[in-house]
């Protein structure tokens, strides 16, 4: 459960800047300095409705190269498809401005910002940025949605990660409407974990690739954010705006990475969002001249949560991330629902778009004596 919160900072006062009801204001916070002593500023927008209500923070690019969320937030800033009636939005397109400037996941002092929260006012460069975010953003929010992508050379099928034992996190995660919710508290030092510890219920979305703004991922993201704002009674949703919801939702407690046993070049047989059965071929590993080295099969039933977009692999490289249903019945229900998706649904669009990042060839069938299932571990 979220811990008891300290007193929140006021939403109408940001240093020398004030934000009135019904106003949108751009705020610049000092996030650090370059090696030449020039200030680095963190831009954000504060958007207040005319009526009191909850404060929702939406952040992106805690890892500086994960910019799908940046695109989604910029769309809300530039062309909002709704009128904010109640409460306040704090929109932070790029949290890790220091890494973003360098197209890097990390900060210039080679630290992972998303393992440094809550940070320290007098700590490292990264620690000071984490402290700023905790104080100025998390310190004003009632709820937070943090937008992520896969790491470089990987892609993620859209999934929400949340502590489902926290009633407020559960509420946000379910209403967002992603097909898969991964139930965990997140690693210590991550923005999600530390914001929840500070009493601000927080969920994250993992979707798409680093260094890209992908249209279908933007659609999934915006739909989920509208769901959340509607649930919190911040916006009035008309029939024209009301987004469709996912036809199914699966909460998983665990996931598993599948790794290559040998070096080689992969031909994939599945794509992000596909359901897979135990023993099903996932990829064929070949030499550069086409000789087959191994067929990699699934060690379990589940849904492909993420995968590498780099077909050249070394022994031990992670190639697919599979979310594991609790029961066979849950898996079969998911499989049936995925197979029955209409062609024009947003869920099918994102599957098609993510599959264009890799080459998927037809499924192959193996005899039982050809199947060797290897145990896998976390990437």
From TrEMBL:
The keyword Metal-binding applies. It holds the Pfam family AstE_AspA_cat. One of its GO terms (molecular function) is metal ion binding. Its cofactor is Zn(2+). Keywords: Hydrolase, Metal-binding, Zinc. SUPFAM superfamilies: Zn-dependent exopeptidases. It comes from the Bacteria. InterPro entries: AstE_AspA_cat, N-alpha-Ac-DABA-like, N-alpha-Ac-DABA_deacetylase. Residues 53-231 form the Succinylglutamate desuccinylase/Aspartoacylase catalytic domain. This is Succinylglutamate desuccinylase/aspartoacylase family protein.
């Amino acid at each position: 459960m979220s811990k008891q919160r300290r007193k929140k900072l006021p939403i109408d006062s940001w240093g020398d800047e004030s934000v009135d009801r019904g106003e949108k204001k751009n705020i610049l916070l000092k996030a650090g300095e370059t090696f030449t002593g020039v200030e680095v500023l963190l831009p954000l927008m504060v958007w207040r409705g005319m009526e009191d209500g909850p404060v929702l923070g939406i952040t992106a690019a805690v890892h500086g190269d994960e910019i799908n969320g940046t695109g989604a937030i910029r769309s809300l800033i530039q062309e909002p498809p709704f009128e904010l009636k109640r409460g306040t939005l704090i929109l932070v397109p790029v949290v890790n401005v220091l890494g973003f400037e360098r197209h890097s996941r990390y900060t210039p002092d080679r630290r992972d910002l998303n393992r440094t929260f809550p940070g320290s006012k007098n700590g490292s460069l990264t620690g000071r940025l984490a402290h700023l975010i905790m104080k100025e953003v998390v310190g004003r929010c009632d709820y937070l949605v943090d937008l992520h992508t896969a790491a470089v050379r990987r892609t993620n099928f859209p999934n929400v990660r949340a502590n489902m034992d926290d009633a407020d996190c559960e509420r946000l995660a379910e209403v967002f409407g992603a097909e898969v919710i991964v139930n965990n508290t997140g690693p210590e030092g991550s923005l999600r974990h530390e914001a929840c510890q500070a009493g601000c219920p927080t969920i994250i979305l993992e979707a798409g690739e680093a260094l890209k703004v992908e249209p279908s991922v933007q659609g999934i993201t915006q739909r989920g954010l509208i769901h959340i704002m509607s649930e919190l009674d911040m916006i009035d949703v008309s029939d024209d705006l009301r987004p469709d919801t996912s036809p199914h939702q699966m909460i998983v407690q665990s996931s598993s990475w599948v790794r290559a046993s040998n070096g080689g070049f992969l031909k994939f047989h599945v794509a992000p969002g596909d359901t897979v059965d135990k023993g099903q071929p996932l990829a064929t590993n070949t030499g550069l001249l086409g000789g087959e080295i191994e067929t990699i099969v699934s060690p379990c039933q589940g849904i492909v949560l993420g995968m590498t977009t780099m077909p050249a692999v070394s022994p031990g490289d992670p190639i697919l991330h599979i979310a594991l249903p609790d029961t066979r019945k849950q898996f079969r229900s998911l499989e049936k629902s995925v197979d029955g998706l209409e062609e024009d649904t947003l869920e099918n669009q994102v599957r098609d778009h993510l599959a264009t990042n890799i080459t998927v060839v037809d499924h192959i069938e193996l005899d039982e004596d050809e199947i060797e299932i290897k145990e896998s571990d976390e990437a």
